[in-house]
Design brief:
Blueprint (H helix, E strand, L loop, with lengths): L5 H10 L1 H15 L1 H5 L11 H15 L6 H21 L4 H21 L3 H25 L1 H14 L7 E3 L4 E3 L12 H19 L5 H11 L4 H18 L4 H19 L1 H14 L11 H14 L29 H9 L1 H21 L5 H14 L8 H4 L22
Antiparallel strand pairs: 1-2
Length: 420
Amino acid sequence: MPLLNVFTEISTIRKDFTNYILVFLMIGVSGIPYLIAKPYLFNIPQLNILTLLFIYSAYKFLSKNNKLDNYFILIIIILIYLIVDQTIWFRTFEFEQAISLLVRFSIPYFVIKLTKDKFMDYYIHIIYVLAVISLILFIPSQISSTYNSIVNNIGSLLNLDEFAHRKSFIIYSIDNDHTRNAGPFWEAGAFCAFLLIAMIFHLIKHKTIKTREFGVFTIALLTTYSTAGYLAFFFLLGGYYFFLIKSRLKLIVMPLLLGVFIYTFITQEFLQEKIEQQVTTQLNAVDREKKLGRFQSAILDFIDISESPIFGRGRGENRYNENEFFIDYGAARRSNGITDFTAKMGIPFSILYFLLVLLSLKKVILFYKAPTMLAVIAFFTILIIAFSQLLFTNPLFAGLIFLFIPYKNETIVNGNNNHI
């Protein structure tokens, strides 16, 4: 049973504890509310988990006499160049945001260099354990109001989240009325993003969906009821069967999968109805309605992109116009991850970043002798979920451009094996 086998995963984690901690903390500062916002060392806000992880991972990297790759140095130089140009263009310099951007791209480089070709294994194991924990806490809560009250009371008692609508106890988060599984992350859609990365890594290494881990990831994702999450998952699954399966089984599976998708899309209000509602209302939104909608965010981002297409607007308060400071929900004034990243970093760097993600995925896939088409499927799966989540300046997702580094000096297999 998948729920019982989590103990096997925990046993595996104990063997490489330090590396697992590094990867877990990188996941944490990328998406777990408490680890993003708190705690502070010596009550100094700048000494947060992000900073401490950077210091520790850099120390471990240097203590092993590692040398910086020219590729990494070039990325940092480009980022510094962008920061300088943004400072000149807007005549404003936000020191903490500038340093934070460099740290967010440095952490995944150090962690991947330290964990080497086991990074994806560590990530899969950690997300598997977190997914199992989420199912243990979420599914019974939907069946028993008593159990749901207990889980909510634990969240309230620990009080580890600064947002009133969310209760977080590090390994699990309760978002709003607890009708969607957010895992340990800031919302259910974010959980989907981390689950989909685990699914992609799993397909790269194992080339099949018929495993305990992939089954748990699937169940966890289905309990999120995330619009973009479902769309990305069906795309990943459809691409797997259409492009990667050679047997005649796909002649049966593909029409069945398409039918399930169409039925789910039409009957579930968080899919067709939600998309139609957002398109209708957000494209005509004005004034205070311009908040966190994906389509309205894209419109506002395109305006920002037009004002600074080459260098972007950067991160922090300088990223937004003064008339947008009305949002009380939190710091995320925009919610379209693709256009937000382009507005922050500029068109040239965004194109470079996305291209490097694709090439990085392709090189890893070639090493594991997986079909090369999987790189394209994985890339667009990430873009679909990013349409509704701000992902790419978080360390885990920034680090996708460094994923290939442990394999760059290895013998790469000719990628002509296009079928499973």
